[in-house]
Amino acid sequence: MTVETTSPDAADPRFSGLPGRPGKIIAIHLSYASRADQRGRRPAAPSYFFKPSSSVSASGSTIERPAGTELLAFEGEIALVIGTPARRVALADAWSHVAAVTAANDFGLYDLRANDKGSNVRSKGGDGYTPVGPGLIDAREIDPADLRVRTWLNGEPVQDDRSAGMIFPLAQLVADLSQHFTLETGDVILTGTPAGSSVAVPGDVVEVEVDVPGGPSSGRLVTTVVQGEAGFDAALGSLPAVDDLQRTEAWGSREAAGLPAPSSESGDLADTGRSGAESPAPARSPVLSEGLRAKLVAAPTAGLSAQLRKRGHHSCFIDGVFANLDGAKIVGTARTLRFVPFREDLFQTHGGGYNAQKRAFDAVGEGEVIVIEARGDDTSGTLGDILALRAHVRGAAGVVTDGGVRDFDAVAEIGLPVFSKGAHPSVLGRRHVPWEHDVTIACGGATVQPGDIIVGDGDGVIVIPPGLAEEVADAALAQEAEDAWIAERVAEGHAVDGLFPMNAEWRARYDAEQGR
User: Fold this and answer.
1) What's the domain range around 130?
2) Residues 186 and 78 in one domain
3) How far from chain centre, in Å, is Cα 459?
4) pLDDT tier for residue 117 given thresholds of 50, 70 and 90
5) Is the pLDDT higher at 8 or at 294?
6) Per 3-state DSSP, what percentage of the chain is helix, strand, and coil (rounded to 5)?
7) What angle do CA 69, 70, 74 make, to 5 degrees?
8) 123 near 6, Cβ under 8 Å?
9) Fewer CB under 10 Å: which end of the chain, C or N?
10) Which residue would you say has higher pLDDT here, 516 or 439?
């Protein structure tokens, strides 16, 4: 059955899809697994923002895209309408405080999102930015895990997901919010959007429907986008601004936004619009110049590590890893991947789909090295031939893992240098859960940050802070030249005492031969 709309604000058509004007509208930043997978980050706990009740509009309304902006995005959502006040309610009792469910469209102007820094005050608070309705579904007669939300853009389906696919169940949102303040009768909770949210332009018609398949429905919530004539006054506040990150997240992907694939030098920029509860975006790697790369290729890890120790860096070694290819040398900037110990429920939520492992191998750029934290556990594979092939095709310089490698021989045949603790035939889920990428990790006893310089050869793998790389490379090559000269003298029959290291007499001779 549906709930009758008997609004005390019936004279105001904006609230015709609700029992009345809501005192509060609370929205969640990220709640669907499909959306989290699309964005490459998954929140550990729900985080929220407020929308003003003046942003509410009814089905059949229009929404203006302000002059001078380009990224007005739609987000089809399930809206909860609070029936009775809720304050510190238990999870088991939370749903009883929900009177009705309906459709909502949480429009947002990404041109303003970065400056809002997660509050979304301006980016999502505009007039008409919260269409709701048209009908209310009685919450008492439905299973909150059995709801469906669908969105159409100009008649074409673009979003289709179930509440069962949410990271945080609907009742949890009610119970969680009630810990912090009283949810009052008529308040509205916007419960987040699934994958498929994208940009609408003037002339587009967006429709959202919430229903129980085969059961009650909210009906289609229809909103038409129109071009506004008014812009923003620079004398009063910051102006709209967009970059490729905002375009990517507004459209849903770089491809949909018409952007080229990211280059190995550009990396990923920080998302200033995310909430603090979400995982960080990948750090931007510094550019490793061809000149510096050539120096590091020429310098052995033994010499580089000696120069690091002279500068007080004694924990630069990734211990216990060996190359799969004889004579392999890797030089590149780090892209990191972290596994946590296997746990059944966490593997259910993080192990499948487009997980952190797959995202890391899809994101690696030319000349970069994927460094994997596997806690030194080599009793399970941390990559196999398919992912190795993906990294090789992307131009990766190699992979370093303090875990095992599956399909070891096949990976070697691909030609991708991989430093690991050895081969193991098991699949990922035996010991590890792929958790996050492009964060600070520990690999083989060494701390590795995205953008650190990784150098590996037959002696092992070391980590060089980017700011020291040029200095250390130059010093290591100078020492190599000196050591080569010493080796020639030893081959001539000279004793090493006083020659290695050189005393003042030998130093003077060396300097003279070098023209110093």
Assistant:
1) 2-251
2) yes
3) 34
4) confident
5) 294
6) 30, 25, 45
7) 115
8) no
9) C
10) 439
Is 332 inside any structural domain? yes
- pLDDT above 60 (res 443): yes
Residues 243 and 295 in one domain: no
Task: Answer yes or no: do 114 and 182 share one domain.
Answer: yes
pLDDT at 38: 79
Specify whether 223 is located in the same domain as 358: no
CATH number of the domain encompassing residue 45: 3.90.850.10
- C-beta of residue 323 within 8 angstroms of C-beta of residue 417: yes
Residue with tokens 């960080």: 280
pLDDT for 249: 85
Distinct helix (H) and strand (E) counts, the chain: 13, 28
Buried b (16+ CB within 10 A) or exposed e, 421-460: bebbeeebeebbbbbbbbbebebbebebbbbbbbbbbeeb
Secondary structure letter of residue 478 according to DSSP: H
Interstrand relation of 156-162 and 460-464 (parallel, antiparallel or unpaired): unpaired
- Among the listed ranges 161-170, 242-251, 301-310, 325-334, which one has the minimum average pLDDT value? 242-251
Structure tokens belonging to residue 207? 């429709």
pLDDT in tens, 358-408: 989 988 988 999 999 999 999 999 999 999 999 999 999 999 999 999 999
Are both 85 and 168 inside the same structural domain? Answer: yes
Q: 398 in the Ramachandran plot: left (φ > 0), alpha (ψ -120 to 50) or beta?
A: left
Return the H-helix or E-strand segment holding 153: strand 148-153
Q: Considering the domain boundaries, does residue 97 fall inside one?
A: yes
CB 448, CB 442: distance < 8 Å? yes
- With a threshold of 0.70, does the pTM exceed it? no
CA nearest 229: which of 108, 68, 71?
A: 68
Q: Which is more confident, 256 or 293?
A: 293
> Of 195, 203, 216, 219, nearest to 35 (Cα)?
195
If you average pLDDT over residues 411-422, what whole number do you get? 94
Q: Are residues 303 and 236 in the same domain?
A: no
* Exposed / middle / buried, residue 488 (Cβ in 10 Å: 0-12, 13-18, 19+): exposed
Looking at residue 411, its amino acid is V
Categorize the per-residue pLDDT at 9 as very low, low, confident or very high, splitting at 50, 70 and 90: low
Burial 358-373 (b: 16+ CB within 10 A, else e): bbbbebbbebbbbbbb
Q: Is 259 inside any structural domain?
A: no
The Cα 76–Cα 63 span in angstroms is 15
Q: How many domains would you assign to the chain?
A: 2
Is residue 477, in this structure, part of any structural domain at all?
no
CB atoms within 10 A of CB 500: 16
DSSP-derived 3-state class of residue 148 = strand
pLDDT per position as a tens digit, 227-281: 988 888 878 887 888 777 888 888 888 888 777 765 433 333 333 333 333 333 3
Shared domain for 194 and 305, answered yes or no, is: no
